[in-house]
Specification:
The chain is built from 16 helices and eleven strands. It is an alpha+beta fold.
């Protein structure tokens, strides 16, 4: 292939055509369309990933990576917990007792879950509770509640909080729910109001006394792991079939499936912007082919091969599209830098934890976006390039 011919035609058709300015304008619009489309897609993916990652982190704070619960008539006791700690030294374990309760304060009621915990074990794996308790430990009938519940009931530390349990006590000829007043030792903020209202923490021994559970017995064990999916299988094999080990993602599979589906739908919709922009590449190249039919026919008659003609137009379309992709990448990273650096879009910090838009463009999303754009550009350039080689030399030279 004569590269000089391809280079000559490339620069010739890239120059602004004063006789047919609409062709050059169409190519400029194609470049801008691909550039803006790719920029919007990359920024949208970064924002989507940022919000998703931020939400997962907040959601994960109060959801433990793994949880062990007994099956059938098995029970979890101190001996089993010690065995797990000795067998899996790379993991953190926090045994617990949990029960559904109703918090009462100032004429208001709020449902929730009360966890009976060992303070030291829980602080080793729950950074929110660790920050709330600091160097203190729960004892007797002390309780830790969320900041949203404190605000709703107008409470402060050292106040009393009445907790109503689901078990009943006989009272004359009737049964009434058991209630107990706890001293508020501290409050936590998880970042999600749902958890700050619903989750409460007390000393496990105090909760045993209220519920009438024997010493050393637990409802389950929370497990902290950096590789939860692999450790789940290891712990399950170690414990056998008498215990169930499940991950936090299994309880919330529908929610995260919906987030992933939303992300994919957004990717497809925004990729259509690049597809629409690439139609300008098709139209501009086809106009060049139709406008330069006589030149193409003459080149073919003088010995130029169809491969050289096809390569010239394909390179022209690819150059416009790839230039748009490179410009779009630069523009996208500049836009993300602006969003990270300046409060161009201000978010309520009490809801999102930060006033700036969360951004997280993963390498996989970046590669898929660029690859998809390259495929669209290549397909858009191929058809006009192929059409250029189908010019009838004899008929064109005879009539034009």
């Amino acid at each position: 292939m004569k590269k000089s011919l391809v280079r000559f035609l490339l620069f010739k058709y890239l120059r602004f055509d004063r006789d047919q300015p609409f062709i050059s304008i169409s190519m400029i619009l194609a470049f801008l369309g691909v550039c803006v489309g790719l920029c919007v897609l990359l920024v949208a993916m970064a924002i989507m990933n940022g919000f998703s990652k931020d939400f997962k982190e907040r959601f994960f704070v109060m959801n433990y990576p793994l949880t062990i619960v007994p099956k059938f008539y098995e029970r979890i006791d101190d001996e089993l917990v010690d065995t797990l700690k000795n067998s899996f030294t790379n993991l953190s374990f926090s045994p617990y007792i949990s029960t559904q309760v109703i918090s009462r304060g100032d004429g208001k009621f709020e449902g929730g879950i009360l966890f009976g915990i060992n303070s030291q074990d829980e602080k080793n794996m729950n950074k929110v509770l660790k920050e709330a308790l600091k160097d203190k430990e729960l004892k007797n009938f002390e309780i830790v509640v969320g900041s949203s519940l404190m605000k709703e009931f107008a409470l402060k530390e050292k106040d009393k909080l009445t907790v109503i349990f689901s078990n009943f006590n006989p009272n004359g000829l009737s049964l009434i729910p058991q209630s107990k007043r706890f001293d508020i030792e501290a409050n936590f903020t998880s970042g999600l109001s749902f958890y700050d209202k619903a989750f409460l923490y007390a000393d496990v021994n105090a909760l045993r006394k209220v519920l009438g559970i024997r010493d050393g017995i637990y409802n389950g064990v929370h497990v902290y792991s950096n590789d939860a999916m692999n450790d789940l299988n290891k712990i399950q094999s170690f414990l056998g079939d008498n215990f169930i080990v499940y991950g936090w993602w299994e309880d919330n599979a529908n929610l995260f499936s919906a987030l992933e589906l939303e992300k994919r739908a957004l990717f497809i919709v925004l990729m259509l912007i690049i597809l629409v922009a690439s139609l300008n590449i098709v139209s501009s190249l086809l106009m060049i082919v139709m406008n330069r039919r006589s030149e193409i026919a003459l080149l073919l008659a003088l010995g130029a091969s169809k491969k050289e003609i096809r390569s010239s137009f394909f390179t022209l379309g690819s150059l416009v599209g790839i230039s748009g992709i490179i410009a779009g990448i630069i523009l996208a990273f500049f836009a993300m830098w602006l969003l990270r650096t300046f409060d161009i879009i201000s978010l309520p910090a009490d809801v999102y934890g930060s006033s700036k838009v969360p951004l997280d463009l993963s390498l996989m999303d970046f590669c898929l976006t660029v690859f998809g754009a390259l495929v669209i550009v290549a397909l858009s350039s191929y058809y006009p390039a192929r059409k250029a080689t189908q010019v009838d030399v004899l008929d064109t030279l005879r009539n034009e």
